[in-house]
Batch of 2 targets.
Target 1
Amino acid sequence: MIKVKSITKLNDSQSRVVIINPKAFKKADSLTTAENTIVKDAIKAEKKQVFLNDGNQHTFIIFSESPTGWEKAELLRKAGAKVCAVLNENKRETVAILTDDAKAALAIAEGIALANYQFLKHKSDKKKLSNSLTEINIVNAKVPKKDINNLNIILQATYISRDLVNEPFSHLNSVQLAEEFKKLGKEAGFSVEVWNEAKIEAQKMGGLLAVNQGSKIPPTFSIMEYKPKNAVNKKPYVLVGKGVVYDTGGLSLKPTPNSMDYMKCDMGGSAVVAGTLYAVAKAELPIHVIGLVPSTDNWLGENSYAPGDVITLYSGTTVEVLNTDAEGRIILADALHYAKKLNPELVCDFATLTGAAVRAIGNYATAVLGTASDEVKQDIFDSSYAVFERLVEFPLWQEYADELKSEVADMTNLGKGEGGQISAAKFLQHFTDYPWMHFDIAGPAFNLAPDAYKPKGGTGVGVRLMFDFLSKKASK
Ligand code: BES
Ligand code: ZN
Ligand code: ZN
C-alpha cells in the first residue's frame, strides 16, 4: 500500500513534482537557473506540463492556476496518474511534491496514489509485477497533518473497495464476503453482525431467500455499525449495498459472452458500504453510521426461483418475479425494509443495479434518484464534484411505478427496458419511509479499460463520495 508522508526536505536525486501557478510565476527556488528558464519558456508557450529527465532525477512541472475548484483538482489527479506511470516505468520508489498550495499537493498525491493500485493477488510473480513506487512525500509544512492522515485512510478504503470488487466469485462468495466485513470491522473499529441462513429464514427475509434458492451457498445479511460516543447525529446515517457476489441472471440467464463476464462486480454496492465504514471508523469521525448488506449469488439450479413465481418479501409485499435477472432490487427491498426500524436520518443505497443506467450515461457517472431534501441533495452533489465522482439525477415519476403493476401480486419486479434505472428505483422506493437516496453504480463501479487514476476492474466509486459527504456532516 502506497503511503503519503509529509517531509521537510527532499532527498538528492529524488524524483519530484513541482506545481507552479503560471500567472504568478517569477522563479522557483527548488529549480536550477537552467530549469527556471525552461519553465518560463514553457509558460510563454502555454504548456500544461513539462517533464525534465537528467537521467538521475525526474522532474515533472505541472502548471496549474489557483487549483482550488473541482476542475483544477481533477486536472491534478489526472496529471498524477501520468506521473505515476513514468515513475513506475523508471523504477522509482518515491516522489516528492513541491508546491506551496496545500490543496494542489493533496490532489496530485491522490491521483498518483489511486493510479498506483494493482490487483496482483492471483499472480504467481507478484514481486516482478509490483509497481516500484511506494511513497509520496509532500514537501510542504503547511499541509495539515490531519489532511494527510485522512488522505491515507481514504486511499486505503478505496483500495479495499477495489480489492473486494476484483476478487472473483471463486474466492469471494456471500459467506466469505461477510467474513471480510468482520476482518475490516476488527481492523478499523466497527461492529459486524452477520445473519446466517437460519436467522434470515426466521426473520422471513423472503427476497434474499428467493434469489438464493438456486445457489449452493447460503445467503448472509451483514449489519455493520460505527457508533462513537461523540457522534453529532442522534439518528444514524444508513448505507445499504447490493451484495450479489455473482450474477448469472438465474433462469432468465444472461447471454454469454460479454454480459456475464464481469458479474463478479455485482457486489460493488457492498464494497462502497464496507469501504466507507472502514474510512469513517479509521478517521474516527464523530458520526453514527450503519451499513447493511444482503448477500447471495444469483445462480441457477434445481431449486431456482422462476419467472412467474410469486414471492413474499420481508415487508410482507408480494412480488411477481417476471425476470430473475432483476434480483438486485429484490434483495435490496429486504434491506431497505429492515432500515425502517433504525429510525435513520438518511438512507443511501449503492447498487450495480441496471444496464439501463449504463445505457443512459455510460460509465462517466452514477445515476441517482431519491426522496431526500433539496438541501441534502445539494450536499451530495457538492461532495460529488469535490471528489469528481459525478452524479446524474433522474426523476421518480409515478408512471415508472405504474410499469410495475401486477395482476397476481402486489407488484412485479420488471419495468420497461426504457428508463429501467427509474422503474428499478421506483421498486426500491416502495420499501422506504424515510429520506432516501439510491445510487445506481452499474456504469462507474467497474472499468473495462483503465481511465486515468481509475484502473481496469473495480474503481472503488462511491467510497470517496460518501467519506466526503459524511465528514462534512460530522464537522457541522
Ligand atoms: N447486475 C445487473 C446490472 C448490471 C449491468 C450491473 C451491467 C453491472 C453492469 C442486474 O442485476 C441486472 O441484471 N439488471 C437487469 C434488469 C432487467 C432484467 C430489468 C438489466 O439491467 O438488464
Ligand atoms: Zn441481474
Ligand atoms: Zn445484478
Note: The radius of gyration is 24 Å.
Target 2
Amino acid sequence: MTDTVRTWWKEAVFYQIYPRSFLDTNGDGIGDLKGITRRLDYLEWLGVNAVWISPVYRSPMEDNGYDISDYRQIDPVFGTNDDMWELLKEAKRRNIRVIMDLVVNHCSDEHPWFEKAVAEPDSEEAGYFIFRKGKDGKEPNNWRSNFGGSVWEALPDGRYYMHTFSAKQPDLNWENPKLRKQIYDMMKWWLDKGISGFRVDAITFIKKDPEFHSVETEDGSRYPIENFENYPGIGKFLEEMKQEVLEPYQCMTVAEAPGVPESQLGDYEGENGYFSMIFDFTWDQFPEGADKASAETFTAWREAMIKGQLLAQKTGWCPIFLENHDQPRCPDKFFRAEEIDGKNITMLAALYFLMFGTPFIYQGQEIGMRNYPMKSMSDVYDRSAHIRFQEAAAAGTTEEEFIACLNEKGRDHARTPFQWSAGANAGFTDGTSWIPVHPDFRACNVEDESGDADSVLQFYRRLIRLRRQEPYRDIFVYGTIEFPELPGKIIGYKRKKDGREITVLCNFSGEAAEPGASAPGPGTEILLSNYENRGIYDGRLRAWEAVVCLSRQIRDQK
Ligand code: GLC
Ligand code: CA
C-alpha cells in the first residue's frame, strides 16, 4: 500500500550539511554556522527546502561532534547559540526547514554527567551510564566496538564502562527512566526553538542484552551485534520517545537504524512506526571488493535496490540517498575511476532522485565531488580509521593495505572542504583548512558549474525542479513505483498516479543500449535527460544516458 497521507517531509528535498567542511567565515579553517547562514541563498537557488545539519553541539570533537559534552550549547568552533537562532530565522524566511542530529546512544566522556559518574560511583549520574565489574582482571565480556577493540574501557577504580563507538563516547543507560527523561526534555527544548525534526544517530544500539552474555564466535573477532543491535525490548524505549516527544510535536525523524530485519520495518517506519523513515543501507553501494564493471555486480545491486524500494512502498516511507558523511563519494562507489565523467554522475542522480521516498543530497554530491586520494595514514583525519588501523596493524595488516581499503571505503572522502570556487582553498576558508581540499577543485566547483548549463550542478537543479513542480510532483511523491524487466545494464522504473505515468530509464553502461518492449515506445515525450536535444524518445539510450519520459497514457489524455 502506498502511503498517501500528505506531509511536508514526503514532499521535501533534503540537503545534508557537514558543518565542519561547508564554509568557514572566520578564517580558523573550520566551517561554522555563519557559513551555513551565508549559503542559504545557494541552497534556495538549488531548490532544496530542508536541511539536516550534522552535530554542532559542544564537543571535544573526537568524532567531529558525534561525541557531545553539552546538548544545549553550540560548540564555539561552530559559533554561538545566537548564530543558531539566526540560522533558523533566515532558513525559515526562505521556507527551508532545519533538522538536527540527535546523538543519544552515547555522549562524550567530557560531558559533566560522565565526569560526575566517574568521580562519584553513587551519584545519580552514575546511573546514566553502563558500568560493570571486570572478570578475572579482564573486560566484563567479549563484545566489540564499532570502531574496533573491546566495548569496555577500564577506570582506575576497577569499574569498566561500555562504549559502542570510541572510548571517548560512553554509552548512555536507556534502562534508567531519569536518563530517558533528560533526553526527552532536551529534544523538546530544541523543538521549541523551531527545528522541524531530527536525524537520529545509531539508534538501534540503545538496548543491550541485560545479562551481558559473552558471544561465542569462531574466530573471536565478530562484532556481537546480536547482543546490542536492535535487541528485543528496544521497542519500549522507541515507543515511549514517540509518545513523549515525537507525536505531540509532530516531529519528523529519519533514523540510522542498522540491524532492523524486514519483518520489523513496519514497526520502525510504517504509518504508525517509531520514526518517519529509516535509512536503508542495503543498496547504497556495491559490496567491498566487487568488480564495478561486471554484469553480476550490477544485477545483484539492482535486485537489492528494487527489493528495498518495494518493501518501503509496502510498509510506509523511506529516504533515498547516495551519500552521507560516513561514506565515499557516489561516482567512486559505482564506477571505475577511468570511466567516471559528467554523464554517469548525472545518470546516477536521475536514477535515485525520482524513486519512491524522500530524496537526500549530501553536500558536494550536487557538483560531483570525488574521493580524496590518500597515500598514507598521515592523510587520514577520521579518528575511527586510526583506531581501526592500530588493531589491524597488530594483526599484521600493512599501512599500504589499510590505505587501499580506506581509499575505497574511508569516511574522509565525504569530509573534504566543499568546493565553492576555483580560488584559494576552493573558497572554503581564508585560513588553513582542517582537512586538505580535493585536488580537483579547479574543475569541480559551484562557481564554474553554475555558469555551465551542462554541469552536474545544473542537472541537479533541473531534477529538483522537476520533482517539486506541478503537475508532476504528485506522481513523484505520492505515486506508486514499479520496476519493469529490462535487459542488460539498464535500470528503470515507472511512477504512477491517477492514471498518469512517468518512466525513468537509465543506461548503467558506457555503451549504447536498447531497453526493448517494456520501455515506452519511440516518440514518447522526454521531460528530462542528461543529454542535450532530447525532446522525443527514440527507443535507444546512449552511453550512461538517463531519460525521464511522460508515458503514453498521459499523452493520450492531453
Ligand atoms: C553514526 C554517525 C557516525 C558516527 C557514529 C557514532 O554512525 O553517522 O558519523 O561516528 O554514529 O556517533
Ligand atoms: Ca570557522
Note: Residues 24-26, 28, 30, 32 surround calcium ion (ligand 2) (CB under 6 Å).
